[in-house]
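Example with several molecule types.
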Amino acid sequence: MTERRPSSRSLRRPSYMHAMPLYAITDFSDPHQVQLLHQDTIKNLHTSVSDMLEASGLTLFDILQEELRAEVASGKTIEWMDSGGAASLIQLAFRISSTSQVKKTICDIAGIILKQEMQQLSGSPAMRKPAKTLTADEVSNFSFDLLRNEIREAAPRLESLIETLSQSSQCNYSSTGYAGKCMNVSIPSDDDTDDETENELDAERGYGVEERRKQKIRVRMRRVQTIRATVIACLCYASRQRANRLQMQMGYYLSTANTPKRVMEVLHQLGIAVGYTSSNRAVKAVAKSCRERLEGMIWKYPGAFPSIDNINFYAHVRDQTQHNQSKLLNLTAGYIGWNPGSGIKEILRACDVDYRRVKDVETLDLLPNEREMSRHSNLMASEIYNVLVERCAEYLRKTDSKGKDLKPVRSWPQYQLPQQKTIVHTLPVLNRNEAVVTDMCKILRSISAMVGVDADTVRNRKILFKGDYLTARNMRYGPVNTKIN
Amino acid sequence: MSSPDGQMKFIEPAAGLFHLQMAIVNLLFCAHRRGGDRVGSLQYWMNEVKRNTGMFHFENRTIKDFRACDRFLNHLIDAHVLAAVAEEVQADSWHRFCEKLSSMNFRKVISSAIKCYQDQGMVFKMREKTLDSRDIIYENSVLFLQHGLIYKRFANAIRSGDIGWVEHCLKYFAIWLQNNDRTTTLKNYQKECLRLVVCLQHIYSGDFRNYWRHCALVNPSGSPTGYMPCDQLCELIIRMLKDRMPSNLDPAGIDFLCSVLGPQVIVFKHCRDNLYRDVGAAEHYQHSSKVESINDVRTIAEKLMKQKAFTKAVGRVNYADEINGKASSAVDLFGLGCCQIASGKVIRELKERLINSELKDDEDEDEDEDEDFVQIAEPGAAGIDEDNFIAF
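Resulting structure tokens for the full complex:
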């Protein structure tokens, strides 16, 4: 709402004048009268200044300009300008006279400010990612939140501008005080949202209407924020080709999703991703970082273990069937895994595996003992209970005849591994056939070299190598039959 | 002198549990397949619930579709469990079973069922009697129930990461695999499973056994039921690699596959998953909804209840629906396996094998300390038969 402007007439020509000056009749012991006197003095001063300007033909701008000239500048005016005076002047100008000239001037000034921010942002190292320096960790942990933080830090006004521009007419997504505002607005429904199905699903999940509404707002807000970050990243990429953090990630992502080259080139031209060549370079760089990551892994994670298997692939044939034996390629793939919860501190020693102990094995050792048979009863009971719960849970009574709750029949925990996410690093594929013992020796030697195992370091150590039966059997043949200096 | 690196003595090979699980499914199919599509045979049940009988090659006794076989086996086990419990509550139809179950203390029902079926050697003892005093249908049903529950426990323990239960089941599998029935002999896993059990019990130290426990299962997703055998993950990685292999793979393509795609194929997945999660995109093609299987289970369970499969009837040699002939007996894997172990032959062979392969090599190393030459064994060389060079 704009404030009503008093007419110049009412200011300059008061309707009532009295010859007696106000200070002469003011009771200075009354604060109210003192305040009225002060207001009257200022009013008279304004009138006299205004009359003087009118008489001299000068404007306020001329006075201000003169005030701000270096040789006559008084600290007070500059201080006033700095402490919000300048901003008030611009606001006043825009409010009183919003002509196209005023708008253009304001936009030009804003353009200069935003351009500076944009240059700072696009030149920032966080926005730059040369293809050759891309690593596996970076592509796996890329986050739009981090990108947004970088943008907010380097270009806060630019981000604010994009935020203002992207605000929906129906919902205010401003980051400040957002939640409170959103709770009271209606959310526009997406065209591709099937409300009926979602309602049913929510009812099944036990979600209330309010909860669903909040969830929807959260999802939508996140989406809008992601789009804003993408827009700014694309602007940076347009202004400077090296500011390609997002585009590099998208290029790599497109490569992982098997996107055709032509599609990638179109997306590159739109500024969404780097081109096919750069993507390919990024893929090679990540492969290099993956290979480097493998080096010394066994020593870094002593509980790590390699696992390998063969790939049988029929090249240049229509169907992957056994009739095309002549086209069969035998390769070997694998990975090194490590369970973080294993708690193994060092690689185990050769004496931990002692085949001489086989002499102690007796028949009874292979048959179930009393303890195992008791455990087996629990196995049967828990599995029968699981089947009953899965197949006819609604018919199982909750209480016994005396009204006591019936406890479920659970299996006794034996050796429960902790909940953990296994770290998996895939090995380079080897063009060797693990079914051939000589090839198996070379495979094992290659893997050992990849993970940094050599003759001196692994002396008197034992590392588990996993695979299927054929792999394990041929591994045993390898060490037995190979003698190399 | 042959160096440790040359001989790679630091390697301790161990077979993964996924291929062992496949072998056990194969074993169970072979043990319970029985004749053709006669009542009670696996093929009969497949036809009853309209499953594709091509999941298992009945002539070659090999699995063609492991997932389908595993699902079918689980449904069949569930039906047997329900039929066995129905017998305990004296119900002869599904409706009666549900009625009775809702009026009884399920803990007591389960307890009485266990008392009936927990003895793994009960069928072996029954089979020592004459045919007139036996009930072949009851024996077959009990055997399937006993085998099935162990298999289910094994699969569940793998999923939930309780490696202790896996070890427990391994011991039973090792016994099963020692059976000497011609139709259920899996020579490779017979040796491998026994070797694994012996290694865990005797050969490995406590620390190494612990190491094996933490290497046997992996959890790539980090979810509580996301554990899988390490060799299964290897198969998944191979599938990911094959998805990226063009049909016209040339030498340059192989190089690219080996050096570029191979090391980062799992990073591809992480990158995709991370981006889906970060932007909140819908992950299409993730069909996680399970097909409702209760109707199939109920169909089989009702048939079993109708046939009174878990009611002991002395002198019964066939199902009520089969008038002629005698039903073939399922293989008593536990009983036959125990007999073989008790004979001492299994232990003797195992000791010979391990001493020849592992300990002899240690002695050779001591003898050849001064030798300094390279020698790679070729097919036909002593100790290696031609089979070693044929893909499994």
